[in-house]
Each structure stands twice: as structure tokens, then as C-alpha cells.
């Protein structure tokens, strides 16, 4: 059968552009043990920018001239496996294409009772798991602490804020517009939020701490890096913890970006800063799902999403919309439904 998929055809320099990819029509041949999945939605995520470069990182670069990969939801259309019957809703890693040929061990059948399939890409997927790992396994969050989350209107950030709130924490968010700041408070329950364009992050964070009447931060969940990280280090209390999740402010940089200039404070205040990769924590995934599924089903945690494209032809422009960020709140998705 015919399939359409997005191939990386050259490595972007700085901000990616549409000519970096091609939408290719090709034949899809099912292997003996493979099932046919019609993809319904795919996730676009900042880490994909890193995979478009050749530079070594924690994950293999995308190959030139081949379909890219990433998380997707789909419906099984052909299967001889009784454990994964036709009609099963599944999550897998073969996004960036309309159909996927998958062995049963390369997909996960997901529960959609009282849930959207795309919740398994958002709050219940890698996005929510990243927030949970950063707060619990890395930062060792305790009830009632003061937590700062950058990119608080983003996929991971919106969930991190809600999880911290569920632990009775005071939550401060930063994001890229006043509208987003309002949503971060109204929809995701942050105590306060600021638009980082409104001044120096250092001053805005100090103002936010004064507003919530807290002496400093116990935890910083970093999605952004650069100026945000330096400002957060300055605002940390003794024994504070920083979970380094992402650094989107530097992903498109073409030159090395200087690190925080105030690392001496890490010593004086006995701070701990730790980077993490969510995939290293798969052993705790069931624990996360047990906790999170109930929170999402009950509405205690919402799984926000923005559709940045419709159809495979809009998948890459959707990715560019995500990187730009202004039009995206929560998890960025491309719909692949008809
Ligand atoms: N460590 C791991 O295992 C792991 C796993 C998943 C994701 N991550 C990382 O975690 C972070 C969050 O992931 P996500 O999928 O939820 O993405 P995300 O936060 O939704 O990323 C997109 C958002 O980033 C913000 N942004 C873009 N440029 C920025 C800049 N220069 N400064 C500040 N904010 C900027 C934009 O929002 P504004 O309008 O607010 O600027 C945009 O909507 C990313 O850095 C990602 O790479 C890490």
C-alpha cells in the first residue's frame, strides 16, 4: 500500500526551514510479524531539533533521506495478534508518517476509557512522565515547597506545575506572553506567572516571589536554560534542587552559549543541580501511570494540547510552530486524521 512520510533531506543550520524536509510517497510492505497502524496524531517536540543535527547527543541523529520518528497515536487496521486486535488504540514511536508497520513489542495498547487517545502523548505519555520524573526522582519534591517552572505553558511545564500544586506547593511559572501567563494561572493552577519578555527574568522572578510571599525557591524545573537558569540559581534557598530538563533557549544556537555566571551560589547555598533523560527512568513508569491516570480521569490534572497542523503535509510546519512557541499551549500535536 502507499504511505506518505516526512523525510529529513538536509541538516538545519540555526532555525529549521521547510526545505529541510520532504513529504515522500512510498510503498509500505508489512513484515510477517507486523501489524498495520493508521496514525491519528503525532507529537512534535523540541528534542527533535537536536536529532536533526549531526552532533552527538543522548539519542541518535535522524538519518538523511529517511522518515523521522517520534511518538504517535494510531488505530490498528490489520493484525493477526489476538493481544492487539483490529481497532486497538495504540501509542508508538513511528510518527512523521500516515501509516506504520509495527511489531507488537514496538507498540503499547492504551486505555481510552474516560480519556482522549492523545492524553497518552500528553499528561499520561512521555510529556507527563518527564514532568513527574523531574519533580519526584530528580528534585525530590516535598509537600508545600516553592517551585518555579519555566516554559510553564508548554507540554511538560503545564503538567509539572499541576503536579507540584497537587502536593500543596506554591508554584511560579514563566512563559512567553501575557495570555499564556493568564492561562497558566487560570487553567493550570499556578499561584502566579510572568511573561519573560517583560523585563529581566531575575527581576520578574524576584517580583513573583514577593507576590506569593515566599523567601526563595526550593525547586526549579528548568525547561529553558540560559537567563532563566541563572535567575533561578540566584533565587534558590539553601538546599534547593534544580532539575535540568531542557534548554530550549539554546537549541537553535549556532555558537556555544555561556553558562550561568553565578555557580558560586551553588556552593554557598548547598544547591544540587541534576540533568536527566526521562528514558532512563522507565522502571518507574507504572508507578507514574498508577498515580497520573486517576488524576487525569478525575480532571485534577488537565492535559492541555494545541493542534499545530492537520495532515502529514502540515507536520513539519507544525514543528516550526512549536519551536516558535507563540501559538502553542500545552502539548503540541499534529492531527493525522482525515
Ligand atoms: N530531559 C528529558 O528527558 C526531556 C524529555 C522531554 C522534553 N524535554 C525538554 O523539556 C522541555 C519542555 O518540553 P516540551 O515538549 O514541553 O516543550 P515546550 O516547553 O512546550 O516547548 C515549546 C515552548 O518553548 C517555549 N520557548 C521557545 N523558545 C524559548 C526561549 N528562547 N525562551 C523561553 N521559552 C522558549 C515556547 O513557549 P513560550 O511562549 O512560553 O516562550 C514554546 O511554546 C524542552 O526543552 C524539551 O527539550 C526533556
UniProtKB/TrEMBL annotation:
Signal peptide range in chain numbering: none
InterPro entries per UniProt: ADH-like_C, ADH_N_2, ER, GroES-like_sf, MDR_fam, NAD(P)-bd_dom_sf
Record bears the keyword ATP-binding: no
Protein name per the record: NADP-dependent oxidoreductase
Keywords of the record: Oxidoreductase
Organismal lineage: Bacteria, Bacillati, Actinomycetota, Actinomycetes, Propionibacteriales
GO MF term set: oxidoreductase activity, acting on the CH-CH group of donors, NAD or NADP as acceptor
Domain Enoyl reductase (ER) intervals: 11-334
Domain of life: Bacteria
Entry-linked CDD domains: PGDH
Amino acid at each position: 500500500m502507499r504511505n506518505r512520510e516526512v523525510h529529513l533531506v538536509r541538516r538545519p543550520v540555526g532555525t529549521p526551514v521547510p526545505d529541510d524536509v520532504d513529504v515522500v510517497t512510498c510503498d509500505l510492505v508489512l513484515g510477517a510479524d507486523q501489524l498495520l497502524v493508521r496514525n491519528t496524531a503525532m507529537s512534535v517536540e523540541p528534542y527533535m531539533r537536536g536529532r536533526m543535527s549531526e552532533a552527538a547527543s543522548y539519542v541518535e541523529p535522524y538519518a538523511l533521506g529517511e522518515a523521522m520518528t517520534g511518538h504517535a497515536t494510531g488505530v490498528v487496521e490489520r493484525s493477526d495478534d489476538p493481544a492487539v486486535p483490529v481497532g486497538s488504540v495504540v501509542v508508538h514511536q513511528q510518527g512523521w508518517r500516515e501509516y506504520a508497520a509495527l511489531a507488537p513489542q514496538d507498540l503499547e495498547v492504551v486505555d481510552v476509557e474516560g480519556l482522549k487517545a492523545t492524553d497518552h502523548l500528553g499528561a499520561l505519555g512521555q510529556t507527563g512522565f518527564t514532568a513527574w520524573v523531574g519533580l519526584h526522582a530528580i528534585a525530590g519534591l516535598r509537600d508545600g515547597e516553592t517551585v518555579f517552572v519555566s516554559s510553564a505553558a508548554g507540554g511538560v511545564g503545564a503538567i509539572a506545575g499541576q503536579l507540584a500544586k497537587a502536593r500543596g506547593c506554591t508554584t511560579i511559572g514563566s512563559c512567553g506572553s501575557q495570555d499564556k501567563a493568564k492561562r497558566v494561572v487560570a487553567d493550570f493552577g499556578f499561584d502566579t506567572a510572568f511573561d519573560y519578555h517583560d523585563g529581566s527574568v531575575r527581576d520578574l522572578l524576584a517580583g513573583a516571589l514577593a507576590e506569593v510571599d515566599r523567601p526563595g525557591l526550593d525547586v526549579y524545573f528548568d525547561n529553558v536554560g540560559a537567563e532563566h537558569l541563572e535567575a533561578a540559581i540566584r533565587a534558590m534557598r539553601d538546599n534547593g534542587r534544580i532539575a535540568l530538563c531542557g534548554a530550549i533557549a539554546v537549541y537553535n544556537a549556532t555558537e556555544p552559549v555561556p553558562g550561568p555566571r553565578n555557580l558560586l551560589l551553588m556552593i554557598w547555598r548547598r544547591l544540587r543541580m541534576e540533568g536527566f533523560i526521562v528514558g532512563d527512568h522507565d522502571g518507574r513508569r507504572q508507578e507514574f501511570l498508577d498515580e497520573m491516570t486517576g488524576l487525569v480521569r478525575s480532571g485534577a490534572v488537565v492535559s492541555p494540547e494545541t493542534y499545530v497542523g492537520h495532515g502529514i503535509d502540515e507536520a513539519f510546519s507544525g514543528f516550526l510552530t512549536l519551536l516558535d512557541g507563540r501559538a502553542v499551549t500545552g502539548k503540541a500535536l499534529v492531527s493525522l486524521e482525515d
